[in-house]
Amino acid sequence: MLVAYACGDARIEPVCTGHINRTYVVYTAHERFVLQWVNPIFAASIHDNIELVTRHLEEQGMATPRLVRNLAGELASLDAEGGRWRLMTHVRGDVHDVARDPDMCASAGALVGRFHRAVQILGDKLVTTRGGVHDPKAHLARLEQAVASHEQHRAHARIAKVAQAILTHARALPSLDELPQRVVHGDLKLSNIIFAPPGHAHCLIDLDTLGHMPFVVELGDAWRSWCNSLAEDDPASSFNLDLFAGAVRGYASTARDLLTAQEQELIVAGIETIAVELAARFCRDALEERYFGWDQQRFEAAWAHNLQRASSQLHLAASIAAQRQRAEQVARAAFAAHT
Q: How many C-beta neighbours within 10 Å does residue 241 have?
């Protein structure tokens, strides 16, 4: 595939992170690039989004990987089997799966705020290619349907008990339905941020999920993971208020006036909502015996691992709920400090 970029003699090394795309670092005589096989779940038009946003970020003075056009002038290339590949400039730095301390979260939050501020001007120019990824009501409704239609599942009673707890928790959450749609990254897990120098958030990567959703949902998905230092399926998963304080402090320092008063008030509810939504998705996956990967060394079947994932995310949601009042005070103070 590198022949399409006149890099046929380059050396490549696989990057063993990420589950969706296959990634390689390409070493030429003078430069480094990133080569990716793009999962077909993404529409071809994502590259138009990426080109639009990264060009704009570069014009705003922000670090960002850029797509490299092939010899035909195209943003992506097809292999003999119809697989889509892209080549991008390489941004050096460190990548982390787990937040080290509140200062790291603050730096990452500040970068996200700068990103949000920079891309809002793009508005209708950006096309959402994967709608419905975060839709709590829809995911909860699908869970109810799965419980009703999979009564013959061998672990139905166990899974249905967790499902009922998820549905009960969800009923106490405020609605996020009326929040405005914003231009967002779409997948702000910590490993999609490059830190350079160490501890300093330098740029965002993996821009396949660019699109529109409420800020509260985007931040809820990010801070659900940043502020839990344990694995997603760890039964002790809990919300770390200190990490959250760092994240919201950093974000408010660069993006305070982007959010309405209602959005600011719903930030903590957004984190809890996304934890519940993810619990619902995993619980449904347990009944339907599906997921792209499960740990066969620790679990007897996909349903067992997914049930553990669901229970762990529900435990995380309960931890957020138990600290909700204090977390909301922290968020208000962070935004007030930058009024």
A: 16
Rounded to whole angstroms, the Cα distance separating 65 from 54 reads 7
Phi, psi of 318 (to 5 degrees): -65, -35
CA atoms of 113 and 91, how far apart (whole Å): 20
From CA 129, how far away is CA 63, in angstroms rounded?
24
Tens digits of per-residue pLDDT, 173-213?
Answer: 999 989 999 999 999 999 999 999 989 999 999 999 998 99
Cβ(186)–Cβ(213) below 8 Å: yes
For 66-115, the pLDDT digits (tens) are: 999 999 999 999 998 999 999 999 999 999 999 999 999 999 999 999 99
How is residue 331 written in tokens? 């968020």
* Token representation of residue 185: 């990254």
**What burial letters (b/e) apply to 271-298, b meaning 16+ CB within 10 Å?**
bbbbbbbbbbbbbbbbbbeeeeebeeee
Pairing verdict, β 182-184 and 211-213? antiparallel
Q: How many CA atoms lie within 13 A of 158 on its CB side?
A: 13
The pTM is what?
0.94
Residue where the block lists tokens 């943003």: 75
Q: Is the pLDDT of residue 320 over 80?
A: yes
Question: How far apart are alpha carbons 99 and 319 in whole angstroms?
Answer: 18
CA distances to 51, 104, 196 from 61, in Å: 15, 22, 16
